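Listing S7. Sequence submitted for prediction.
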Amino acid sequence: MMFCIMIVAFKKKTITVLGSLFINSGLLGAGFQMFGSEEKLNANPLQHLFEIYVEVSRLAEAREDIQTAAQEFFKKLERGDKQTLALWQHFKTISIEEYEKTYQRLGVRFDEYSGESLYHVKAQEFVHMIDQRGLLKKAKQGVGVVDLSPKGDLTSYAKVVRSDGTSLYLTRDIAAAADRMEKYNFDKMIYVTDKEQCTHFQQMFDVLKILGFNWTERCQHVPFGLVKGMKTRRGDVVFLEDVLNEARSRMLQNMAASKTTKELEDPENTAEKVGVAALIVQDFKGPLMADYEFDWDRVLQSQGDTGVYLQYTHARLCSLQRQCDNGTKIQFNPTYLQDPQAIAVLQHLLRYDEVLYQVSEDLQPRHLVNYLIMLSRLASIAHRTLHIKGSLPEIATARLLLFEGISSVLANGMKLLGITPVDKM
């Protein structure tokens, strides 16, 4: 799966690209025709399609007839065969419905659901354009390529068409990029995928440049690393829905076992929000390209550089405001915030704009995550030392407003990361 973010006159449009249309699509289609179940597909679409794909891939290693059936299914897709396209559209529709349920839990919304199947015709048009310009070369086994080598000796090239004339992932992405430029005239287009596709996007941008598309400079690939060691109670193969369920379940257990947990109207909803925060912070706190080992106990710790800690800090600040805000408004006087702990917090708050700018420049959310973690640590120190109750009204007001400022920035920063702040836990 690929996420595409376009900036058009400072307005954002997000697209998720589903289901790469290549030989794996043929395997899935052929597999469903062999042993698919409409009943299972409707009951649990993603699980059933995954099971089919695993089984047909295993069988295809030893059976040439399955490989042939997969190639034929793919060719039919390319040719626009109505029955084949209808089945593929059925897969897509019910898959999107399932994805949207999961995205909703993450607070994620896409403006458009796209797919390579939309571009198989335009991909062929690009192959024809490449051929007409004399750029289409033949490599081993008759594969059509575009030469990317500096000396023109095919030491480096991009595959754009199979020997049987069907298009490739790269060709369809090229066609999609050109279509999006024509449709949206974007200022910037950002592709977000795993880092294993770095070569693919470099080749794609190179071919677009060779074809004379000057807007290629506006395209950027943002790769992310792999999560290792992630398991849920259902086993090694992990679906995002299972991960979210596991996070919520474990947080409910942790909250029930904690002596500091407040009485909540909807503990499951709180556990959901805190669990999502834990997963997001774990994923974003390091460089996006870096692989990392996943450990549930570490991810859900209530102290340290975790999403649980951010949520706990925010809930604690909200509790402080509920306890101390008596509605009486006294004019704020900053001279009452001369304590070292207050100054440290204020200096850190002043860096917020700078951190947001840094994130927008290199597209690395870790800057914001680390900023919020440090803000939470400073808030904890200030909470222990800058007492409100028992202080003079002027001092109490200044300190309460300081904590409100921390809470506001913390909540705002979490929302930018896709986290819904909780005010009680």
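Caption to Listing S7: primary sequence and predicted structure tokens for the chain studied. The longest strand covers residues 11-18. DSSP finds 16 helices and ten strands in the chain.
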